[in-house]
Amino acid sequence: MAPDREQSGTSHSLTLHRPLHATRRADGAFQVDGTPTDCVLLALGKLMPEEPDFVISGINHGSNMGEDVLYSGTVAAAFEGLVAGIPSIAISFAGGDLDILDSHRPGLERLVRRLVAVKDFSEGDPPQRQCSGDPADQVKGVKITRLGSRVFHEEIALMKDPWGKDIYWIGGGHVTWTGGTDSDFQATRDGYISVTPLHMDMTNYKLLEVAQSWFPEE
């Protein structure tokens, strides 16, 4: 199952205000005129004959590191699998040369086999995996990482429409990354494949006790 068009930045959105079309392709796959999360819902709820053992989302073109996991449709599709109780993996490609993607296939297959064989993963949270942007024969190995942090600069461009009115285009600009030596962006920058365990619980547990003092009368 895959969207029939570019869906970068759609996060965990669902198509709720119109019906969806799922078109069966000659290779047996379905293309859906919806979001990545729509695809997982349709696959699990209607189109697969039985529940899969895993949900593997991607591989997508473009890195999903740091705060990008909050925007990423690829990561959101993996989380949707997790919501359904299915161990899930999101895979992203940090490079710009799509011609080298095929070179990563054997290594990714080995890595996925290792991940799905791990008992703790099968019972726990999904990893987000980031492929190095280098050709497979130049990859130095695999590193377990934490999310780094990124800041976009000049990503909003002001333009004019044909009638002279202001319009705004989000995208482009340049990115500044921060994080330690164990961060995802540093691993891929150094030529490694980054594997970052993620989970859906966004509760700030360190703040729970402090938050109780905000409402003492309660």
Question: What are the main properties of this structure?
Answer:
218 residues, three-stranded mixed sheet, Stationary-phase Survival Protein Sure Homolog, Chain: A, alpha/beta, 7 helices, five-stranded mixed sheet
TL;DR?
Helix content is 26%, strand content 25%.
Q: How many structural domains in the coordinates?
A: 1
Give the oligomeric state: single chain
Count of DSSP H/I helices: 7
Mean pLDDT: 89
The N- and C-terminal alpha carbons lie at a distance of: 48 Å
The CATH architecture can be named as 3-Layer(aba) Sandwich
Name the helix and strand elements from N-terminus to C-terminus, one letter apiece. EEEHEHHEHHEEEEEEHEH
How big a fraction of the residues is strand?
15-25%
| Strand order of the biggest β-sheet | 4-5-6-12-7
Count of distinct strands: 12
The biggest beta sheet, please? 5 strands, mixed
Residues in helices, as a percent range: 25-40%
| CATH top level class name | Alpha Beta
Rg for CA atoms: 19 Å
Q: Structural class given helices, strands, pairing?
A: alpha/beta
Shape: globular
Q: Fill in the CATH topology.
A: Stationary-phase Survival Protein Sure Homolog, Chain: A
What's the CATH superfamily, by name? Survival protein SurE-like phosphatase/nucleotidase
- In the predicted model, the low-confidence regions spanning at least 5 consecutive residues are none
